[in-house]
Amino acid sequence: MSKKRQKLISDILVNGSLLLLCLIWTLPSLGMLVSSFRPRDDVLTTGWWKIDWSQLTLKNYDQVFSGKEIADASMPGGVAKGEDMSQAFLNSLVVTVPSTIIPILIAAFAAYGFAWMKFPGRKVFFIMVVAMLAVPLQIALIPILRDYTKLDLNGTFLAIWLAHTGFGLPLATYLLYNYISALPRDILESAFIDGASHFTIFTRLILQLSIPALASFAILQFMWVWNDLLVALVFIGSRPEVAVLTQRLMDMTGSRGQDWHLLMAGAFVTMSVPLFIFFMLQRYFVRGILAGSVKG
Amino acid sequence: MSKHKKVWLLISILAIVSMMLAACAAPTAAPVEPVEEEAPAAEMVEVGGVEYSTAYTGKTVTVFGVAADEQARLFQKEFDEFSEKTGIKVEYEGNKDFETLILVRVEGDDAPDIATFAQPGLVADFMRKGNLVDLSTFMTDEFLTSKYSQGLIDLSKVDGKIAGVWHNADVKSLVWYPKKAFEAKGYTIPETWDDLIALSDKMVADGETPWCIGIESAGATGWPGTDWVEDIMLRTTTPENYDKWTQGELKFNSPEVKNAFDTVAAIWFKEGYVYGGVPSILTTGFGDSPKPLFDDPPKCYLHRQASFITNFFPEGAVVGEDVAYFYLPPIDEAYGKPVLGSGSIATMFNDRPEVREVMKFLATGYSMKEEAMAGVAVAPHKDADPAWYPTDAARGFATIIQEATTFRFDGSDLMPGAVGAGSFWTGIVDWVGAEGANTDDVLSAIDASWPTE
């Protein structure tokens, strides 16, 4: 009786505190969601919890998608339309997808090499790659910018693909190395005996077997690049033709930060893609994070 | 296996789509090197009263600045006519992280052709490092003096070189008053400091309270007081001394600064001068402090604050009808009509002939037309047409700036953060708390907090 009771109490305590934590954790997002549907004046005057259901509107989302309304007496109706998000959305995709795929491919080759190929200096090279993890990317910004200026690469998408590839490679190589080196030796050896080359083994065996690790790193890299502002600002700048979503979001608040009701709606639009990717690949995610953690 | 195939299929589709997208977006991505066409004999075209050469058709000039979104749109629009007539394309890039990014880009040899700064300190740094082009190499004194007041030209000089041309400006040396009640009482706008004090005395004699003052502003409490001191400094000493003061060469406990504090004290701490008395100076939010102007009858008649304070006026208050402003009068005739304010200055990083044409254009009031018409900024140019401004109030700001004999930036913004956004603010708070009895201690304490290199 008392034991059951104890268990019940501890269950309530554990689940209750978990529930509370979840609530606290999601509260800001909830506030953003509610604010994104509230009219401008309401957002500016009262907190989101003082919600007036009859006032909810889709106008913020409308302005986010079709361009902000700007008072301009010289235009018909006295209102001009600002930039919409579509160009920035495309730019973000163009930046993010190659910046995710290129480092994963290179890192997978490298990880295989470090794990299963014997060559002199293997350890030294691997230590160098791992050591790169400790170098903050910020210190590389200006030197790389200088090189890009010489190569006339500034402001091009190629520049940012290469930058993100470089910044993403150490972690990618390290994570994939842990996973790939833990694959059963027997499989690889039998493939060797059957006469398979390194390339065949890599494409036929390693890539197929490493899907969980590849997918989980893909999520990490995709989110990092999608949400990145700094690297994009430095290497491709903020001209409307090349500006990415994060940049557009920053502009959306207006030059004095007066339009943050639009920021809320814009933030939800921006979040939709990483959320989609995450839910699509999430079953690999936990498996991948654990990759290599119980390496024997 | 089929699961894995699906993933690979998805990845390859994504890759192909992104490459396609990249291909679509490519033309704008690469820095476009304009094709050299056979240069037609250079003709001159006139835009806004100045002649420009058409020899640089097809060239692109990049401009980088802090104005984003709706202001960026106006700025870009101001080049429409210029670009159409001269053929020089102007590409504006606005970013709210401008101050950081400009450092990164200049360091990375990726400087824009033109940058507009709101921080004169940064401009001076770049000029001294040799990044900026001295405009006097191609702009004559006559041209500049036909466009700007001498005060503004002096302010754009770094070590005798012209670092840039002013693009827009804002005024802080303003006194706001409730127009109807003010006129009904027969008060007149003071032309000198003595008039201002006489007017205040007259109000007290009439049983009214002259001033509304509030310096509370959360973590920045005290800043409205620093503006007062700076305004008085400009009126009681030379601009050179003001510059030395903001650079730390003229100490706070020098006679000049002490005199400025004493002049402020003569208004702030005088019995019957301030609505709510001295304690309310500390506890009234700067945004709430002008509200008594709008009571009927007004609870105070004078309020010194920058032009942006209109944002804090009660809804429906019309500047020019319910409330109006006058220029904070000079104290010593020797220092003319100084103005405390802020503004942005266009500077040139790359010396190419087409960039020079754009800089020339930026020196004309015509390059501010759209922003002036939208009422978002004031043109400091002499040749700006007052008819552009949507309100009389905005027109008045322009006049004050153009008539300024000296124009100086908010000193606390120029001082090191530890002082300008720290001990100067808290010093003012301590000083008001003691009703000015501890001026010497406060000034010495601010001096002591000045960072040593």
- Which geometry of chain A do the CA atoms define? flat
Distance between the termini of chain B: 66 Å
- The H-level CATH homologous superfamily of the largest domain in chain A, spelled out, is MetI-like
Average predicted confidence as pLDDT of chain B: 87
CATH class of the largest domain in chain A: Mainly Alpha
Main sheet makeup of chain B: 6 strands, mixed
Strand tally of chain A, please? 2
Q: Which whole number gives the mean pLDDT of chain A?
A: 85
The residue ranges of chain B in which pLDDT falls below 50 over 5 or more consecutive positions are: 25-39
Strand order across the largest sheet of chain A? 1-2
Radius of gyration of chain B, whole Å: 26 Å
Tell me the name of the CATH class of the largest domain in chain B: Alpha Beta
Gyration radius of chain A, rounded: 25 Å
CATH T-level fold name of the largest domain in chain A: MetI-like fold
Report what the structure shows:
- The complex is a heterodimer of chains A (296) and B (453).
- Chain A folds into two domains: 2-81; 86-289, MetI-like (MetI-like fold).
- The longest helix of chain A has 35 residues, at 2-36.
- Chain A has 296 residues and is mainly alpha-helical.
- Chain A is built from 13 helices and two strands.
- A two-stranded antiparallel sheet of chain A has the order 1-2.
- The two termini of chain A are 44 Å apart.
- Chain A has helices at residues 2-36, 40-45, 59-66, 86-116, 122-132, 141-151, 157-180, 185-193, 198-209, 211-227, 230-235, 245-252, 260-289; strands at residues 69-71, 79-81.
- The model of chain A has no long low-confidence stretch (mean pLDDT 85).
- Helix content of chain A is 70%, strand content 2%.
- With 453 residues, chain B is of the alpha/beta class.
- Chain B folds into two domains: 45-170 and 340-409, 3-Layer(aba) Sandwich (D-Maltodextrin-Binding Protein, domain 2), CATH 3.40.190; 174-339 and 410-449, Periplasmic binding protein-like II (D-Maltodextrin-Binding Protein, domain 2, 3-Layer(aba) Sandwich).
- Chain B is 44% helix and 14% strand.
- Chain B contains 19 helices and 13 strands.
- In chain B, the strands form four sheets. In chain B, strands 3, 4, 5, 8, 12 and 13 form a six-stranded mixed sheet that branches. In chain B, strands 10-9-11 form a three-stranded antiparallel sheet.
- In chain B, helix 10 (223-236) crosses helix 12 and helix 18 packs antiparallel against helix 19 (439-449).
- The A-B interface holds A 68, 70-74, 80, 82, 90-91, 93-94, 96-98, 101, 141-142, 145-146, 148-150, 152, 154-157, 208, 211, 215, 218, 233-234, 237-239, 241-242, 247, 250-255, 259 and B 1, 4, 7, 11, 14-15, 17-19, 21-22, 24-26, 28-31, 66-73, 91, 93-97, 101, 104-105, 107-110, 373-374, 390.
